[in-house]
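Input chain follows. Return structure tokens only.
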Amino acid sequence: MHRSLRRLVAVVLIGTIAAAGGAVATGRIGYQVTNGVSMEPTYHDGDLVVTMPTSSYHSGDIVAYHGGEDGHLLVLHRIIGGDPNGFVVKGDDNQSTDPTQPAADQIVGRAVLHVPKIGAVLDSPITRGLLVAAALALLGGLLVNPQPRLARAHRPSRRSRLPDRARKALVGLDIALLIAVALVYALPSAPAVAAAVPPTQTGSFTYGADVPVSVTYPTGRLATGDPVFTKLLTTIAVTFRYSTTALSGSVSGTVRLDADLSTPSGWHTTLPLVPPSAIVAGALNVTGALDLAQIQSLAIAVAQETGTGTAAIAVAVTASSSVSIDGAEPVTSTSELPFQLTALELALANVKPTSSPTGPVITTTTPLGTTAADPVHSPADVRHQAALGLLATLVLGVGTTIVIWPNQEVPSATPAESATRSPCRVA
């Protein structure tokens, strides 16, 4: 390659690396390595996702934001609602929305590029070191002066400090690495090994009441999903059942039930339904009475004192749990059963019950445990990581070959050759 062209390529590479590094350092480009299964099947554990901040975000965008209890955990989930003052976000594989509703200025960026599986490899210090060394070797090889040099008179031409055998061995190693990379991808993979599944916890809400048989309630029983007409019923029983896939003997904790009340005017209060109750053998079943007459009386009293008038009341029955596995740091979570109460009826708000062997239920399932179990990589993952490692080694080998490859010296011309090549003048 011509000297000017080699240097141009080197300048372009250096500029590209500097621009990319500057964009990452200033936050104009970010990248995250996914961890967990909350975004399956869109993303899988160990994928690389590149994000960029934008002027606005919309429903359907996959965004990265700082969440968690301390605000340091970088969460990559999809926007499903809300507005710039607080977006509602949720993992594609999660049953419930995230507890945090990040504002637009709290979002790090929107996902713009997805590279499967490579993230787990980039997290390896060995792979990072090989890639850095390969980049430096290539840049060094491009910056080396490739122009032929004129040898001193009567000195034999020198081709390289390394003997021909060593140079050939280096080229052979590069070819062997190239073949190895091709074979790793070409050979069939072994069957995948199932990954370890972290434990989960499930909370199920039901409500009901016995009521006189009528046209409205022909069975004499109010079931989950039915509207509650306040002229016929003033109190209903709300039941919460807790279960977990963890070993029952390793689980300890408590669950309490509350009714959170609020109105459009901003008034809100909390009514305790069931005090904290202990989880026994990994399970719990508690029932509280929701007094609709009491709630309406409170709302009317507030409306009379404030002059804001009466309106629909948002009633959210919440189950707050604090659960620990094998004495580890407790995991706190909340399940919610949302209602809207008017002067005539109480009805579910924005949720629909699902069927179960015991009847309609409102169910929420969330992960249980502060740390996930070590992932079990499938043979396909191991093969992919091996290929990337070999590829990085190949790039390093080629860069080294470019750096040490000889710049052949041109022997200086003898006096007779110089005289022969000199132009002749005709008198």
